[in-house]
Amino acid sequence: MDAPANNWVARFGGSAWERDPVTGRYYLHSFFPEQPDLNWRNPDVRAEMQSALRFWLERGVDGFRLDAIARLFKDPELRDDPPAREPFGLPLPEDYGRLSHVNSTNAPDIGVALRAIREAVGDALLIGEVYLPTAQLRPYTEILDVLFAFEAMQAGPDADRLKTTVAAAIEAGKLGWVLSNHDFARFASRFGENFRAASVLFLSLPGPVFVYQGDELGTPNGPGADPPLDRNQRDRYRHPMQWNGSPTGGFTTGIPWLPPNEPQLRNVADQQQDQESVLELFRRLIRLRRDFGSAARLLDSPPGTVVLERGGHLVAVNLGDASAPFKRRGELALETRRGDGADPDTIPAHAAWIARV
To answer: How many Cα atoms are found within 13 Å in the side-chain-facing hemisphere of 289?
Structure first.
């Protein structure tokens, strides 16, 4: 087209329309200008993408993570996005959040694109990165296998928000729990002194858990790079995995794009030798969750706490600054640190325990 078609804006700022200097025409990009959107409404495009999916299946992949999948179908009439009249429910950049993106994303017939993907992959695993509130996920849960529970991820150490978002995700079904990813602040930085307690909660929920590299070490946000490598200021979430305490963290014998993030303080080699380390806590939680089954129920609990009943286990988490009264039933199976479960009548501040009942 010879001019921008509407008022749509890119997720990272500015117009979503860019003029191609060769043809003089405008094309759409939901993110950066070097990432043009394909027209998935064109049957030939869908067929070509199906061919690409089959290519990888034939080479043995088990499934796909579908990034920004709500962007595949837009309004066929390319109508303007109206001003936002109410909060979106998830964090958005300020300029981007001024519009309600009802036409530039998540079209009502998105199922056409999703079914084309499912047709190509058969029963291969499909994981959807759908940045929408849980209440809007039904078209995706009908076709995909797992969706990221972004509302719970963004709740932070707010027990009431966590209970609300976790309950909604469990009811919706097919949701997986994202600790961190390359777009948002790391799990350890978001939860601070509640990091271990929050780890117990998320790794005890029903459904898959997505652990971003370094979360299992308690890796916080790093310093990033100067000058920045990422134009959207995400470098500090993307430092390399740290396998040992050497200057490059054992990640490479060369020079990584982003520097290690204090590998002498947090690395796999050291934490493997420490029974009280974050890595050992994660390993114990992963072993224990195999006994939980699929049922889950949130219980009434004191302010600042989240208590979950899971397959013969009681998971008690306290994100508050003071001990909370809660009587433990059964035998202590796990505690965030040695002694955190010593008192059977409380949940210590910034701590958690799991009991077999």
So the answer is: 20
